[in-house]
Every structure is written in structure tokens, then in C-alpha cells.
């Protein structure tokens, strides 16, 4: 297992500045961060997997970037093992995240003892945002400037037919 590689999993429907903040923090600690996009049919994403990958890729246009983007379909810990990654990174925004994250981390530990989950605290500016809340605001024409990268804002407007 490689201690220098971290996997940052999520649905990223779409990626937000809060997620990017966590990736930046992880890059201070790890040599490589793999953004693992979960194919989670239960969540019924608004954006297709290809669209989500494309939006994240545009955030890291440098091909030598220490960020890799990969879709995952099976168990997260199997993916981490396959990539020899020792660490799963998750962001914590508020106490409300804790219960779910605690469950997820303990289940992952049960499934694979050799992979550790670490939690990074999201920056204060991002603690109230989520992909859903941003989609909801965008759907109703609300201002989502500075909560997502500009190209994601454009995609959201396009998706919800907002012309402003
Ligand atoms: N900034 C902004 N928003 C954030 C955030 C941050 N720093 N951190 C989390 N969020 C938001 C996300 O936008 C998401 O919002 P949404 O619910 O409105 O879409 C929510 O918090 C949490 O989602 P996310 O980080 O995308 O995780 P998830 O709960 O959708 O995905 C997986 C969880 C992918 C990690 C989990 O389903 C998984 O591991 N799947 C693989 C299969 C597996 O191994 N399952 C067994 C695990 S025991």
C-alpha cells in the first residue's frame, strides 16, 4: 500500500468549490489525489458520469497534475486496494455530516483493515453548501456565483435552461 496516494470519493453531481477545497487540502498531505466518482444509481444524478468527469477535468487541465479522475463502480475499498492507496479522504463540513461519515468509515474499515479514512475540515466558507443545495438554487434561477467553478455554473444554467 502506498501512503502517498489518497482516494477522494464522492458523487460530485456537480463538483463544488467545497470539494475543490478538500482536494487542495489533500494535495498538501499526499503526492497524488484520485478523485473517484461513484456511479451511484440510487442518487439519480442530474449530470451523466461523462459530464461529471468533464467538469472535474476542466478544474485540472494540466496533464501533469497530481490529481487523477476515475469513475468507480464497485466497492470503494476494492478500488483503493487496486490502486494501492492507503488512505480515503472525506470532507467534514458540520456535525450533521458526522453520523453518516462515521458509519461509512467503520464499514470501510470492516471491509478492508489496511485502508484508513481521514477527515479534512472544509473551509468555513463552504460548510453550508452541498451539490443538492446548489442544484436547487440554480434550478430556480438563484445566484450560485463563487460556489462552483465558472464552467460548472455555465453547465448548471444550461442544464436548467436558465438564460441570464
Ligand atoms: N463541499 C461541498 N459539498 C460537500 C463537501 C464539501 N467539502 N463534502 C461533501 N459534500 C456534499 C456533496 O456535495 C453531497 O451532496 P449531495 O448529497 O447534495 O449530493 C454530500 O455532501 C455527500 O456526498 P458525497 O461526498 O458526494 O458522497 P456520497 O455520500 O454521495 O458518496 C460514497 C458516498 C461515494 C463515498 C459512497 O457511496 C461509496 O463509497 N460508494 C462506493 C460503494 C461502496 O463502497 N459502498 C460501501 C461503503 S460502506
Structure characterization notes:
This protein is α/β, with parallel strands linked by helices and 164 residues long. It has a single domain, classed as Rossmann fold (3-Layer(aba) Sandwich). Helix content is 40%, strand content 22%. The chain is built from six helices and five strands. It has a five-stranded parallel sheet, with helices on both faces. The model has no long low-confidence stretch (mean pLDDT 94). The protein binds coenzyme A (COA).
CATH architecture: 3-Layer(aba) Sandwich
Query: Which topology does CATH recognise?
Result: Rossmann fold
Structural class: alpha/beta
Helix content: 25-40%
**Low-confidence sequence ranges:** none
Order of helices and strands: EHEHEHEHEHH
What kind of sheet is the major sheet?
A: 5 strands, parallel
- Counting DSSP E segments of at least 2 residues, the number of strands comes to 5
Question: What count of structural domains?
Answer: 1
Distance between the termini: 49 Å
Tell me which ligands are bound: coenzyme A
Secondary structure: elements and pairs:
Elements: E1 2-10, H1 17-27, E2 32-38, H2 49-59, E3 67-72, H3 76-82, E4 85-92, H4 95-111, E5 116-121, H5 131-139, H6 150-159
Parallel strand pairs: 1-2, 1-4, 2-3, 4-5
Question: What's this, in brief?
Answer:
With about 160 residues, the protein is of the alpha/beta class. The protein is built from 6 helices and 5 strands; from the N terminus they run βαβαβαβαβαα.
List keywords for this structure.
single chain, 164 residues, alpha/beta, Rossmann fold, five-stranded parallel beta sheet, 5 strands, 40% helix, globular, binds coenzyme A
Amino acid at each position: 500500500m502506498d501512503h502517498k496516494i489518497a482516494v477522494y470519493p464522492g458523487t460530485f453531481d456537480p463538483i463544488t468549490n467545497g470539494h475543490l477545497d478538500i482536494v487542495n487540502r489533500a494535495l498538501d498531505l499526499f503526492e497524488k489525489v484520485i478523485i473517484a466518482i461513484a456511479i451511484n444509481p440510487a442518487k439519480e444524478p442530474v449530470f451523466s458520469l461523462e459530464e461529471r468527469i468533464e467538469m472535474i477535468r476542466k478544474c485540472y487541465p494540466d496533464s501533469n497534475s497530481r490529481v487523477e479522475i476515475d469513475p468507480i463502480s464497485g466497492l470503494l475499498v476494492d478500488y483503493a486496494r487496486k490502486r494501492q492507496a492507503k488512505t480515503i479522504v472525506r470532507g467534514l463540513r458540520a456535525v450533521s455530516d458526522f453520523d453518516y461519515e462515521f458509519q461509512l468509515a467503520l464499514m470501510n474499515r470492516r471491509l478492508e483493515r489496511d485502508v484508513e479514512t481521514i477527515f479534512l475540515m472544509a473551509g468555513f466558507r463552504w460548510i453550508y453548501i452541498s451539490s443538492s443545495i446548489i442544484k436547487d438554487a440554480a434550478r430556480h434561477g438563484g445566484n450560485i456565483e463563487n460556489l462552483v467553478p465558472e464552467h460548472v455554473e455555465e453547465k448548471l444554467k444550461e442544464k436548467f435552461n436558465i438564460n441570464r
